[in-house]
Design a protein that fits this description.
By secondary structure, the protein is α/β, with parallel strands linked by helices. It is built from 12 helices and 8 strands.
C-alpha cells in the first residue's frame, strides 16, 4: 500500500511539474481602438505567444470572433483559448501566433442596411490596419486567419467570402448559416431580435430575402465563388450534431461538396455551447497552424 501511495504521489508531482513547465502567453484585455466610421471606440482582447516579449520577430495572426450577445472576453473567459494555444505551442502542434478578439456587439460583423453601423468596413479599413501596426504581425494573407463561433462563425465565413484576398484559412464553429427558407419562416420576435437592426425590422416571409440579405448570405456567396478561386481559402467547418444550427452547416457542407470547394467538415457529439467550442478550439488552431507553416 505504501508503494502504491508513493507511486501515485510521484505521478501527481510529475504532472504538476509538466503543467508548470508549459510557457504561458500574455492575455491583455480592455484594449480599444478609435473608430471614425463607427464614431466610437472598439474594444478588443489579444493573446501574445510566450516568446513575444523576448523575440524581435513577427508572428502570424488569428482573428477570433465571438458569438451573439458575447464580447471580446468570451473566448478567454469561457473558451480558454489561451490555455489551448499555450499547450499547442509547447507541444509544437502550432507555431507561435497572435490571437486578436474584437468586440462586435450584435452587429453580425457586417454593415447594417441603413449604413449607420458599418462594422465590416471598420474591421477592414480601421481595425486590421491598426492591429497590424500595433503588434509585430506578418501582415500578409498567408499569415492571416479568421475563426469564430455562431455569429462569429458567420462573420468569419462572410469575411473570407467578401475578402478572399485577406485570409489564408477560415475555421467557423457552429456558424450561424441560415437557408432562405429558415429566414422566411423564422418567428417574428426571433427575427427582430437577431436581424432587425441588420436587415430591416417588420419584414415578413419573402420580404426578408432582400438585396442586403443576399449580399450577406453565406450560401448565396459560396455559389458565386469563381472556379479559379475555389482553393484561395482553406476551410475547417465544425458543428455539433445536436446544434440548432446543424441544418445550415450541413447545407453549407453539401453545397461546397457539390461545387468542389475543398474544405474539412467536422460533426462531433455536442450542442451549441462552450463545452463544444472549448473542446474543439485546439484542433482548429492546429488546422490554422498548418497553413502558417512552410
Amino acid at each position: 500500500m505504501k508503494k502504491l501511495i508513493l507511486s501515485a504521489l510521484v505521478v501527481n508531482i510529475f504532472f504538476a511539474i509538466t503543467i508548470a513547465q508549459i510557457p504561458t502567453g500574455n492575455v491583455v484585455d480592455n484594449l480599444n481602438i478609435k473608430s471614425n466610421l463607427l464614431k466610437k471606440e472598439v474594444r478588443y482582447s489579444v493573446y501574445l505567444p510566450p516568446d513575444y516579449e523576448t523575440s524581435n520577430r513577427s508572428y502570424p495572426v488569428v482573428y477570433l470572433l465571438h458569438g451573439f450577445s458575447d464580447n471580446q472576453w468570451g473566448w478567454i473567459q469561457f473558451g480558454e483559448v489561451n490555455f489551448a494555444a499555450d499547450k499547442a505551442i509547447a507541444d509544437r502542434k502550432i507555431p507561435p501566433m497572435i490571437i486578436v478578439m474584437p468586440d462586435a456587439e450584435v452587429t453580425w460583423y457586417v454593415n447594417d442596411y441603413k449604413g449607420i453601423n458599418p462594422y465590416e468596413d471598420m474591421f477592414f479599413k480601421e481595425f486590421i490596419p491598426t492591429i497590424e501596426a500595433t503588434y509585430r504581425i506578418r501582415a500578409k494573407k498567408e499569415f492571416r486567419a479568421i475563426c469564430g463561433l455562431s455569429m462569429g462563425g458567420y462573420g468569419s465565413l462572410i469575411y473570407t467570402l467578401h475578402h478572399p484576398e485577406m485570409f489564408a484559412v477560415c475555421a467557423p464553429f457552429s456558424a450561424a448559416v441560415f437557408t432562405d427558407n429558415e429566414m422566411e419562416t423564422m418567428n417574428n420576435e426571433t427575427y427582430k431580435i437577431r436581424f432587425g437592426n441588420i436587415y430591416g425590422n417588420n419584414l415578413l416571409g419573402n420580404d426578408r430575402i432582400s438585396v442586403h440579405w443576399k449580399n450577406n448570405d453565406v450560401l448565396n456567396l459560396v455559389k458565386q465563388i469563381p472556379e479559379k478561386e475555389k482553393n484561395n481559402v482553406r476551410y475547417y467547418i465544425d458543428c455539433g450534431d445536436d446544434d440548432f444550427l446543424f441544418k445550415g452547416n450541413s447545407a453549407l457542407h453539401t453545397l461546397m461538396r457539390d461545387l468542389n470547394i475543398p474544405h474539412e467538415y467536422r460533426v462531433r457529439n455536442g450542442d451549441h455551447n462552450w463545452t463544444y467550442w472549448r473542446t474543439g478550439i485546439a484542433d482548429a488552431l492546429e488546422f490554422i497552424g498548418d497553413s502558417f507553416r512552410r
